[in-house]
Each structure stands twice: as structure tokens, then as C-alpha cells.
Specification:
The chain contains 9 helices and 13 strands. By secondary structure, it is of the alpha/beta class. The strands form 3 sheets. It has a 9-stranded mixed β-sheet. The protein has a two-stranded parallel sheet with strand order 3-6. α4 links the parallel β9 and β10. The longest helix is centred in the last third of the chain and has 15 residues. The N and C termini lie far apart (41 Å).
């Protein structure tokens, strides 16, 4: 049962998956919770099945080799996790950038999974999709996780106005923020959003000491766009946080966007030029991954 009774056991959020032990979603060993749903449509998204909620079109039901998908009495696609073999057939077939493998969980249900591995983790990281679409749920979850003596990180695309939600940030160690483009025109092409809120959050989170990490994907051959974004970020964050320069990798990118971005992986030396530029501009914690 909840430790304080202070949160609603009825409030639920759509969880795509929970990785109990992760060492790539923030510092130390962490439990990573991935929520379903995202307001952006990034060309190079590696998990586009988390963008939309399942529409129950049913295209995947008869194609599931394990019989883990079915229609309920109301015509909604339901998923049997016990039968599922994680073959990803449903995800590959889905034309809507969605997944039927989503579980609506309460705060207490998520906490039960966190408590099981609590002795072995440093904290949790909420990701997605875009986890801030479930900001009230996360606030309640973070409050309880902090009571367990663990830290909480937010992995965000920056679409949420953090300035209007001090309660969420109160219980968070910080935000791992994606800044994919500094110019509105390039942002609209790349992520289907002008990105104004992202840049606002960059400054706000930095100024209040809640910017844990910034990340920018470096695309092959996009010299001007890459440089403009790296310059903007580096000049705004200085040495306030880590700056992760991410090499573009085509694995998992949707075919229609591969035709635009190409199938060439970003060369490490090419990405390294931008990490060096960032450090020259004052972002001393810039590095390539």
C-alpha cells in the first residue's frame, strides 16, 4: 500500500515498458520508465512506436505469431503480456507509429516494480515517448521515490513548459533535455515543431540548476544546421551540465525518413569536430557518443 496515502491509486498512465536496470539513462544504475505518447515526430526517432496511442485498427491482431493480441468486447485491441514473445511483429506492421503493447499502470503499480530493485539502483529516469505528457503522474511517483532515498531524472524533448510546474521539478534531480535544432525552420522540418519551448526550457532549467544534460544529434552532411545548433547550445549552457553530442545512426529510423536523412552513420571524427567546437565555446563537458 502507499506509504502516505497522499497520492491517488486510481490515476493511471500508459507505460510502454520498464527497464529495471539501466546504465545509459542517467548516472549510476537506474530503473527507466518509458511512457507512451509524444507531441513531436522526429525524423531520426529510434522508437517511433511510442509516438501515438494504439487506435485499435486491428491490423496486427491476426498477424501476431504468438496469439498475444485480441479484440475485447468493445472492439479494443488488448495485449496478453504472458503470451507475448517480444518479436516486434505488431510494431513493424503498425502504420500509425503506435504499439498495442502498452500497460495502463497506477503510481502504486510502478512503485511496486521500483521497490523490487531499490537496493540495487541509484534512482529512476522517466522517458518515452515524452514522459511530461504525464506530469501529474510523475510528480506523485517522484514524491514517493524520493522517500525511498532515490533520485529522479526526467528525459524530455523539451515540449513541456517546466516553468509552470515547480512541483514536478522539486522532486527531480534534473532534466536530460534534447535540443535537436536551434533554428525554427530546421526544427519544423526535423521534428514537426518550431522548437520555441525547447529553447525556453534550455535557459530556464539552466538558470535554476535543473539542467542535468543536453543532447544534440549530429547528422551527416548537415554542416550548417549542426553548427548552428551546437553553437547555440554551447553558448547558452557553458559548463553548467553535460553536453552529449550524439552520432546519427540509421538503425530503427522509419523508411520514409531514411530517404531524407540517408543510411550513413555519422562518423566519429565528424561528430568530434562539433564536440570540440562546443568546448571552445565554453561547454567544457561536451563529449561524443
Amino acid at each position: 500500500m502507499p506509504s502516505t496515502g497522499a497520492y491517488s491509486i486510481m490515476k493511471k498512465a500508459p507505460v510502454n515498458k520498464i527497464i529495471q536496470f539501466s546504465n545509459v539513462d542517467g548516472p549510476g544504475n537506474r530503473t527507466a520508465i518509458f511512457f507512451q505518447g509524444c507531441p513531436f515526430n522526429c525524423m531520426f526517432c529510434h522508437n517511433p512506436e511510442t509516438i501515438h496511442m494504439c487506435s485499435s485498427c486491428g491490423l496486427c491482431v491476426s498477424k501476431c505469431p504468438a496469439g498475444a493480441l485480441a479484440f475485447d468486447e468493445g472492439g479494443k485491441v488488448v495485449w496478453d503480456s504472458g503470451k507475448c514473445v517480444q518479436c516486434d511483429t505488431c510494431i513493424k506492421l503498425c502504420p500509425h507509429d503506435a504499439s498495442p503493447r502498452v500497460t495502463w499502470m497506477s503510481v502504486e503499480e510502478v512503485l511496486q516494480q521500483i521497490r523490487r530493485c531499490a537496493p540495487y539502483i541509484d534512482g529512476i529516469t522517466c522517458s518515452g515517448g515524452e514522459c511530461t505528457l504525464r506530469s501529474e503522474f510523475m510528480t506523485e511517483l517522484f514524491r514517493e521515490v524520493v522517500r525511498l532515498g532515490k533520485t529522479c531524472l526526467i528525459d524530455s524533448n523539451g515540449s513541456y513548459d517546466f516553468e509552470k510546474d515547480p512541483a514536478l521539478l522539486e522532486f527531480s534531480q534534473g532534466v536530460m533535455l534534447d535540443v535537436k535544432a536551434a533554428e525554427r525552420s530546421w526544427s519544423e522540418k526535423l521534428i514537426s515543431d518550431p522548437g520555441d519551448m525547447v529553447l525556453k526550457n534550455l535557459d530556464y532549467l539552466k538558470n535554476i540548476g535543473k539542467l542535468y544534460e543536453v543532447r544534440t544529434v549530429i547528422l551527416p552532411g548537415r554542416d550548417t544546421e549542426n553548427e548552428n545548433t551546437v553553437r547555440y547550445v554551447a553558448e547558452h549552457i557553458g559548463d553548467a551540465c553535460f553536453y552529449k553530442i550524439i552520432r546519427y545512426r540509421p538503425f530503427g529510423v522509419r523508411e520514409r525518413f531514411l530517404k531524407i536523412l540517408g543510411e550513413e552513420e555519422t562518423d566519429e571524427a565528424y561528430a568530434g569536430r562539433y564536440a570540440s567546437l562546443a568546448r571552445e565555446l565554453g561547454a567544457s563537458k561536451a563529449y561524443v557518443v
